[in-house]
Amino acid sequence: MKYAVLDFETTGNQSSDEIIQAGLAIIDEDLKVSQVYSSYVKPGISIPPFITGLTGITEEDVKDAPELDEVMMEMVPLLEDVVLVGHNVAFDFNYLQSALDKSGYLPFTGRILDTMDFLKIFFPSLTTYQLGLVADELGVEHERPHQADSDALATALIFLKCLEELSGLPLLVLQRLSDLFAGEDSDLGWFFDAMLQDREREAGQEPDGFTYYRQFALRVDDWMDIEPARSGMLDNPLRDISFEQFMEQVKDNLRAKLPEYEEREAQTLMLGEVNRAFAEDKHLLIEAGTGTGKSLGYLLPAIYHSVKQDEKVMVSTHTINLQEQLRERDIPLLTEAVPFPFTAAVFKGRQHYLCLRKFEHKMNRKDFATPKEEVITAAQMIVWLAQTETGDDEELNLGNRGSDFWETVASESDSCLGRSCPWFRKCYYHKAKHEAGVADVVITNHSKLFTDIQAGHQLLPGYDRLVIDEAHHLEEVAGKHLGLQMKYFTVVHTLTRLFKDSKTGQLPNLRTMLGHAEGEKSAEWCSVIDGLYPSLLDVKDCWDRLAEQLFALMPERSDAAPGDPGQFVLRLLQDKKPKVWEALSAIENQIYTTLSDTIRKGERLLAELKDDDNDYGFDSLVTDISGLFKDLAGERDALRFFMKMDDANTVYWLEGNGTYRSKSLQLFAVPIDVSTQLKGFFFDKKKSVVMTSATLSVDKSFQYMIDQLGLGEAAEQERLLTAMLPSPFNYREQALVVIPRDFPSVKGSVGDDHFVRTLVQSLADTAVVTKGRMLVLFTSYRMLRQVYDPLKELLAEQGITVIGQGMDSGSRTKLTRRFQGQNASVLLGTNSFWEGVDIPGEALTSLAIVRLPFQPPNHPLVEAKSERLQQEKKNPFMKLSVPQAVIRFKQGFGRLVRSSQDRGIVVVYDTRILESYYGKYFLYSLPGPKMEHMPLGQMVPRISEWLDV
Prior knowledge:
With 949 residues, the chain is α/β, with parallel strands linked by helices. A hairpin with a 2-residue loop joins strand 6 and strand 7. It is globular and about 85 Å long. Its cofactor is [4Fe-4S] cluster. This is 3'-5' exonuclease DinG. ATP binds at residues 288-295.
């Protein structure tokens, strides 16, 4: 096979746009790039400035270039008998066909392959498919991104990497892929078929390192063989060894491994405090800022204590990101530094692990909801099975629609066959659970901690010592899990997975299998299933009606623009129910009774099928359906709890947004105060709980956290230690906080014209001085939208890009990566950007905080907490709103200085920080940067002067 890899640069992406450069890389039969063709093309229209900015191609470059006809005359002979390849090939292919047509040639009729598909399939863990970033990741040279010849060559080399990856996979994987695409009349199907025939002719040596089981190639062995780390050792390696002696050995090993390793005062203090809490059976609140090295600060005492006392230590993080960072960065380092074998296992929520039984079932039935997309996802996962040892979905880049696919193959307790599953010995979830059982330290997340509590401690191995990282989120996660949160689609997904129409869904699948089975019973069972369909449709109708009527209760917010996220919120009060509540409860009652009846009939049917001796081979289907019935029962009970609204300690509310209306409906029922529950689950029961975060104190005191988390009694009994670690950075030299004291103020979440104009101009002036590299934090999405267009326009002339959350597509990670990848850009973010965003070094020089991050006082949970504080004769603003905002403000400030080399500016545009009586709490809580206030006019010269030092 001969491949031609094509790339065009054009004046835009409309059909009226024209080609300005053509690139073609030819790959010969021996899989070498034999030729690269490239030429500028003279367009009939001028090149827009943003295209010149992107590609570097100017009017000057193309003014004497050959016309399109001449270029096509040179290219057409190169396109004979080739398979056409491109990165996002449809774009280039359309331009090719149009160019052939304009120049009087016949259209291209050969095969076409897209490297995007190949990357998704053969590198399922790539986090991005952008050509430049993929080239970096795969070690492919790509000298001039967005120039056609360089792009074509880079795409050709990436395509060859994919073919190389394919050649290293077992024959079985290729057979699976070929079979998967067989029904598709596609060029990918043709390609896999041709590759399979080649491979079968060669019949060479199969690659090592794979386990073959039930027609899949896997990377994972039987997990039952996994033993504890020190199973062969007779003596405890820490017998008679003090923590100080242990640390000396670790430090020696770290120095030998990392020449740049230096002891940090804050980290040494943290090691001592955490060790003391463990040794004295006390709880600890410890604030450790960026750069402390807090992961090692708690992991080393945890390992020491766990091994010495033979007691498991649980570590919990708020985000999966931090869990991954501990797994990939910190644990491997400690494995080399700690002078004896130990294990730290990562254990996540069950839905993160693939259920091999469900996946096998889906592959064998080719049960795809949207075949075109799902076939690619299935192909990705077949290759991934030959690579993954964890079966954890975080390793997969599933794209937007992939999450629906994942939901149908994820592990679930309700549909688990346990030991009777043919996949049990290979099961990823049970492997992770077993590893956690034999590990010294288990790394989990806050969500799983609470799911474990709700499941009566059946999920996590038993533990007496717990480290909670990112502890400022504990209260919020507890509320979510100990309360209820239900989405419109929660119910719809369960219903449609059971029955969407007579062909789609698990019940129709079962009916089809029963229809093929012999015997009078199967006809009976088929009629029972037919009888369930109308009831399920009835429930879906009622739920749609209920969702629409609940959504209609929410007031349209006067200050909200369409599509404003979290746009509608309505708190429901037990003693002031809306007038229509009785009518709504009647609909809920109908849902409740119909569901109860359906579930009862369904479960009886499944029980009969299980007891029947005939092996129709549908055990796994019966298990899945039984799981879905359990889900429905849970949703039925949750809806009843919400509609009854009879718990005085719970706050009930509805949320939705204007674009998706009732489809976006969410129901919440959250405990007003979780401190008693936290005390009962953790602080009374566990020997020691260590809570750490960069932001736990307010105005140098931990009182707010002690109250919120239920630590009051532990503090009175002197079972609570607290520590605030000194910062390892020199903030006085590294950060300057500037406050323009005459800046206009604003009421509510929307700025008036004068405020917005002044803000846009000031942001633009500052961005020019700092050459972009600026993160702007908003507290309302509405204000971000007001600023985005005018700022973009002002900065375009300066060659500075503006990227806006919710305005430019992409997740937080994608937007952050774009920001880091561009020399001069300004990133506008709201809520999720205030924390967890890590942009070290030069990429971020200035941070602008538009408003102090107070939570909207009318948010139902804030409102209910405030009422409770008023009843206790306390000031809710000072006891709740200010401390919450200060912690958020400190998180935002923490985005700027991420290493001892970083220097930067923080501009606070909210003059309340100077004028109000509570402003000092914000300023005193910062880690000692230089602070100056001045008139707006003097701000830019001062910033410029400070940066030049």
